[in-house]
Specification:
Layout: H1 14-29, H2 38-50, H3 54-67, H4 72-84, H5 88-101, H6 106-118, H7 122-135, H8 140-152, H9 156-169, H10 176-186, H11 190-203, H12 208-220, H13 224-237, H14 242-254, H15 258-272, H16 276-288, H17 292-305, H18 310-322, H19 326-339, H20 344-356, H21 360-373, H22 378-390, H23 394-407, H24 411-423, H25 427-440, H26 444-451, H27 453-457, H28 459-464, H29 468-474
Length: about 475
């Protein structure tokens, strides 16, 4: 038999198992001078290999080489064992011995390539695989291992080509569909990635890594429910798979199933003791549920784990702002901005907090920073305009309203702009702005009646706005 092709199942018969145990006992207790024939040594070496006892297997192979020093197969097996023991240079020497005896042995060339790949000798590894393919152009293992090296080098399109050829030659190859799925994942070819992971799962249904990676791709595709189901399968196979619980939590949060997301994140804490990212996601879930005290607790734990976590400082500030602890919140926004000073979202939260605290001038400065960082942020322009109007800087407010309208000319911006035009005595322009707002959103007419009752009672203004018919029908 070819060494290492056998499995322990070959000794399931009690008589054979007893024979194996006798052989092992004799080998382990015997002296180096004790005689074992080549077939016995192959059986012993194979058993040790299957059990992961590589040093013992190497001893048996070396005894075999004492009998058969011209066996290329035995030299190749020696190389495999040395490679598994991390003795890579010695492994290459063994492969070279094997190739001197049998230069056309593709299995040795492939194993030599694997060791060269491990040593980072990428070109030599690829040459070894190409040598094997010149001898045997239909060798699926050569294509597979060539793909592995190319994948590690980030030559993903070439890796895909090698893996695809392997899959064509051996559709039931145990690893190729997983590696193809991973390459397609990295190339953002999501649909093909899912197809390959599914083919791998058809062959290896208990591959928790495949279910997990499949979930990552599905989540990126926005298929959150399918992603959560995929993570569930990974967890069912390996119930201490913390990363699967974490990503399951993310998928559930994306679906708005926040209680279930929290449960998943807490599993991560139970398994790994918690880290900054998990505490942060727990805090986000509680914040979204408006449980601000619980959210605050987890944001605090996140920054305890990682003081350089700007999003966590920001989230903590948002919680305290929601709890109307504005002065404390501002200090936390400052911590976030010290770490990421050009983050418009942080400046925006700081501006809103300053406004809530009655610090209008400070809020103006912060809103201005937001629009300087994010000039296309229409909501920030509107908030800047409203704050400028409140501060009596009506001309500047009007400029800000117009910037908002240039980004998105919606009814709300036209409606808000109208009051600045009224305040500047530009009644005709204000009326035009209100008419556009009413045309875009008829509900703004009712808002006008409640927001500006004095103007609404003005008969001339109602007539100019075409509101007389509505007021008559109301009467």
């Amino acid at each position: 038999m070819s060494m290492f092709d056998f499995e322990f199942d070959d000794f399931d018969d009690p008589a054979d198992e007893a024979r194996l145990n006798e052989l092992l006992a004799a080998f382990e207790e015997g002296e180096d001078s004790a005689y074992f024939d080549s077939e016995t040594l192959e059986d012993i070496a194979t058993y040790y290999f299957e059990q992961g006892r590589y040093e013992d297997a190497l001893g048996a192979v070396d005894r075999l080489l004492g009998l058969m020093s011209f066996s290329s197969d035995a030299w190749m097996r020696r190389g495999v064992l040395l490679n598994n023991l991390g003795r890579h240079e010695e492994a290459l020497e063994a492969y070279d011995h094997a190739l001197n005896l049998n230069p056309a042995d593709t299995e040795t060339l492939i194993n030599r390539g694997i060791t060269l790949d491990t040593l980072g000798r990428d070109d030599d590894a690829l040459n070894a695989y190409d040598d094997a393919l010149r001898i045997d152009p239909l060798n699926d293992e050569a294509f597979f291992n060539r793909g592995v090296t190319l994948e590690r080098l980030d030559r993903l399109d070439e890796a895909v080509a090698s893996f695809c050829r392997c899959g064509e030659l051996n559709v039931e190859h145990p690893e190729v569909w997983y590696e193809l799925g991973f390459c397609y994942d990295r190339l953002a070819r999501d649909g093909e990635s899912i197809e390959c992971y599914d083919r791998h799962i058809d062959l290896e249904p208990y591959s928790h890594d495949a279910w997990y990676n499949r979930g990552i791709v599905l989540n990126r595709m926005g298929r959150f429910e399918a992603a959560a189901d995929s993570y569930e399968m990974a967890i069912a196979i390996q119930d201490d798979f913390a990363s699967a619980y974490y990503n399951r939590g993310n998928a559930l949060a994306n679906m708005g199933r926040l209680d279930d997301a929290v449960e998943s994140y807490l599993h991560v804490v139970d398994l790994e003791g918690g880290d900054a990212a998990t505490y942060y996601n727990l805090a986000l879930a509680f914040e979204e549920m408006e449980e601000y005290e619980r959210a605050r607790n987890y944001f605090e734990r996140a920054v305890q784990e990682d003081e350089a976590y700007p999003e966590a400082w920001y989230g903590l500030g948002c919680c305290l702002d929601a709890l109307e602890r504005h002065d404390e919140a501002l200090l936390l926004f400052e911590r976030a901005l010290a770490l990421r000073p050009e983050m418009g979202e942080f400046w925006y939260a700081k501006a809103d907090c300053q406004y809530n605290a009655g610090l209008v001038e400070d809020a103006l400065h912060s809103y201005e920073r937001v629009v300087s960082i994010e000039p296309a942020n229409r909501d920030a322009w509107l908030d800047l305009a409203e704050t400028l109007f409140e501060a009596g800087r009506v001309e500047r407010a009007l400029d800000a309203y117009r910037r908002a309208l240039s980004i998105n000319a919606d009814a709300g911006a036209y409606f808000q702009q109208a009051k600045a035009l009224f305040a500047l005595g530009r009644a005709d322009e204000s009326i035009r702005s209100l008419k556009i707002a009413f045309r875009l959103d008829p509900n703004k007419k009712e808002e006008f009646r409640h927001t500006y009752p004095d103007l609404y009672r003005d008969v001339q203004i109602r007539r100019m706005l075409g509101l007389d018919n509505e007021s008559s029908s109301r009467a």
